[in-house]
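#struct-help
A.M.: can someone run this one for me? Single chain, 242 residues.
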Amino acid sequence: MINRKETIQGLCRLKLEGMANRYNAILSLPVNEMPTLDEGIAMLVDAEESTREQKQAERLMKKSHIRYNASVEGFETGPERNITKDMLLRLADCSFVRSKQNILIQGPTGCGKSYLASALGRQACRMGLKAEYYPMGHFIEDATLAKTEGTFGKMLKRLSRNDLVIFDDWGLQPLSNYARLAFLEVLEEFYDRKSIIVTAQLPINQWYEYIKEPTLADAIMDRLMANSHRVELKGKSRRARL
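D.P.: on it. Structure tokens below:
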């Protein structure tokens, strides 16, 4: 006679948690609702796949250090925000990551730039893509230090393990020359290979002036603008709702 408890324990030992939970649920069904052998096996396999996908997404989200516990479903759209539901859904399928494209999100303070970037980053994690959230102020500090210590190669290698990197709050802090060079190297490494999201309160037409050094500004803006989606959010501050 089959010992169902031992079967569940065996599945757990094999780290088949999804199968174990679904098998336990099947056992609680009335006899007339029990699945056939083929149906039961399909249900167990589906449960295991779903559990593994969920765990992978949770691991990726944890490693990403994404700022907000944001979701695409929780982002408000409409004419007053200058973004429609259709526009949001097109971004939310993360085809921009698979196509190695960038997103530039600009708008006034508190309008939801970081929230939208976080939502898209978490959405990418749910789809099995590696993402990382990087406040621009931290990047400037880390890149400057890495450049002076000669360790920027390691930093760049770490960043390039991701499919998507979010640079949040571009334009709030002055760029050191080391940071300008480092950011250009990131863009060169990522071009046609990875995707980035940049959020900024500073209008895009002022980014060139913000970078200051003309030669580097030309190179950075050329790579930033090429193959990029632009999202210009509008509306009053929604900071209290985040």
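A.M.: thanks! The chain has a mean pLDDT of 92.
D.P.: also worth noting: The longest strand covers residues 164-170.
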